[in-house]
Amino acid sequence: MTTDTSLQPRLLLPVALAALVILGSSMPWITVRTFSGNERVYNLADLRGGIAIIMTIALFVLIGGVIGIFKRLTGMTIMSLAVATLGWMAAISGMLLTLLWSLIPSINVAGIDLAKATLSQGSGVVVTVVASLALAFMVVRQLQPFATYAPSTHIPILPLVVVVPLTAIAVCMHSEWLRLGTDGAAVQAQVAGDALYGSGLVVLAIWLAIGLWIGALMVNRSLVMAVASGLTVAVSLIVGMYAIFMWAGGRLLDWLVPAKLEEWAAVSVEPQLYVVLVSVLITFIASVFGLFPKSHTVKLTLGVRTPGSTKFFYSDVAGAVLILFVLVTTVMQLR
Amino acid sequence: MITGFLTYIAIFGMTAIWVLGWMGLSVVVGSFFSLPLRTVMLVGATLGPLGFIVTIMIGILENRTTNSDPVLGTPQAGVPSQDFEDPFAI
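Structure tokens for the assembled complex are given below, as produced in the milestone run.
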């Protein structure tokens, strides 16, 4: 543990990440799409006692923030544990339901028979989990023996290249890939990426891969990157096959039904499917490179801070951007 | 009111089981690799299954470092360690 205050982590980014996690709890956690074209979203606040849970966690974050002013690492640890609880609530609820539904489609959720609907995780899960993992790694990297392996000014590029498209895949897995039937029709099916058979397990693997890549950013060793690359290659292949089959199937149906009978049988491929195809291609190529140790040495070098240099902190800039995002989103939600 | 309270308890209980479960597993693995207990507990509690995997990786990396000779880089076969103590010696 560091004792020199100039070497301690800055407090703005952890506070911003904690605020982002709490904001994520007000975003959709579960999306239910019925075949009548309706879409219903649920989050923690919709549950009885949900607001009390959010308030309890916010209180612990506040306590952690105050303690962090005096004892930085202790405060950050309290904040991290509090938001990790919320992050795991989001992850468990979303993953359990989608995993269960992708294997046993005939269950009831919120009074809706899921044999007549599709179930997805909402965008709130992505925001909550990624922000809580980032904060957890910020705390963990201060502790021994993790501190030995954590990079300070030389950040590996490969995890940065993979994490962005992999997160895009995770987000797009929970949105519509294909739409069957027109908007005016009474029956309309919106097929999301995680509505496919067995996709619940694939979503779990995607999350694990994202976590491992964030870990590779913090633990600067070839072993972590090699394991993350191996898992990402497998995940990219499976998601790529899902996307190609879905795209080809949709196109095939569109071509095979020449007369659309007043367009009631229209099949439209949604833009998210193309985002998945492009992201899968990037992650696959990058993670194949990641299997070779030479690619792990490509690093981004940040400027070394000297005693005479200006007080510019990269984490403060990131924290300020996140705080701005949280404020704008909160204002937009309140309007 | 009662339903809300029970939901509150149930959700926190479920999350606590998840967090403590992964913390326990990480502590077991961390003890195997002789990693500091406080670090391993925090890693398991905050990172869950990911913390468990990261603990294994750090354990392997740490063992690689401690098992290698500082000069030659490999363990010396047949040469007793400096801190070796004969438990039967009086």
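The longest helix of chain A spans residues 222-256. The longest strand of chain A covers residues 30-34. Further analysis is deferred to the final report.
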